């Protein structure tokens, strides 16, 4: 193609300016999700079938110690007249035991054995009155009340009866007084008993010990 005369050299045809286009999106690989570590919290406290938290071992142990101290003092005070009589017998034996050995047995050993038997019987009576007649009304002895715990039936629909309290008494005190080392086994049983942390006397009476506010 030729230019007409008087025009300069031909100019190249300029292509149209390109329209602006946003850059194509470019995404890298997704980062890995964060890792969360969940530390397990403390297990929920064990509860009775009624949903009330159970008394732990130390609360029950302190309550038991309080009750034993109170009952031991009461039994000792009630035993003082018998102790006085026996010690008077000992003085009488010391006066003439060198000439006649017979009174040593009749005036010392027999009264002493009778005193021991009387203290055992007295202790059973005092424990019965305290642990059965006193406790079955509210489910609490003085020691349990001080530690804010209470004996309740395992079945929430029942109430604590004298029969339940009496079965607890038979296993805890009577068997504990007759069977060697039974008291230790009975008291420690709650440490491995699941799920209600019952002692052997709890199992005999179908009871549990729970925490209360008062």
UniProtKB/TrEMBL annotation:
InterPro entries cross-referenced by the UniProt entry: Pra-immunoreactive (IPR051791), RDD (IPR010432)
Main localization category: membrane
A Pfam family reported for this protein in Swiss-Prot or TrEMBL: RDD
The keyword Membrane belongs to this UniProt entry's keyword annotation: yes
Domain RDD per the UniProt entry, residue ranges: 55-205
Domain of life (superkingdom): Bacteria
Topological category with respect to the lipid bilayer: Multi-pass membrane protein
Cell location: Cell membrane
Chain segments carrying region Disordered: 1-25
Spans traversing the lipid bilayer: 61-88, 108-130
Record keywords, A-Z: Cell membrane, Membrane, Transmembrane, Transmembrane helix
Stated name of the protein: RDD family protein
């Amino acid at each position: 193609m030729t230019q007409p005369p008087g025009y300069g050299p031909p100019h190249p045809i300029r292509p149209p300016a390109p329209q602006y286009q946003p850059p194509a999106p470019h995404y890298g690989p997704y980062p890995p999700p964060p890792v969360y570590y969940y530390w397990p919290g403390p297990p929920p406290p064990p509860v009775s079938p009624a949903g009330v938290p159970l008394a732990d071992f130390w609360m029950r142990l302190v309550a038991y110690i309080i009750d034993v101290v109170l009952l031991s003092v009461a039994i000792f005070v009630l035993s003082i007249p018998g102790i006085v009589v026996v010690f008077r017998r000992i003085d009488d034996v010391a006066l003439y035991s060198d000439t006649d050995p017979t009174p040593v047995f009749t005036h010392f050993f027999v009264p002493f054995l009778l005193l021991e038997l009387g203290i055992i019987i007295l202790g059973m009576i005092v424990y019965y009155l305290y642990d059965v007649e006193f406790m079955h009304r509210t489910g609490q002895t003085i020691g349990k009340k001080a530690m804010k715990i209470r004996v309740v039936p395992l079945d929430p629909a029942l109430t604590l009866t004298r029969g339940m309290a009496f079965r607890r008494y038979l296993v805890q005190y009577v068997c504990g007084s007759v069977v060697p080392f039974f008291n230790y086994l009975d008291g420690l049983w709650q440490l491995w008993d699941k799920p209600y942390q019952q002692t052997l006397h709890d199992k005999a009476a179908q009871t549990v010990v729970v925490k209360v506010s008062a």
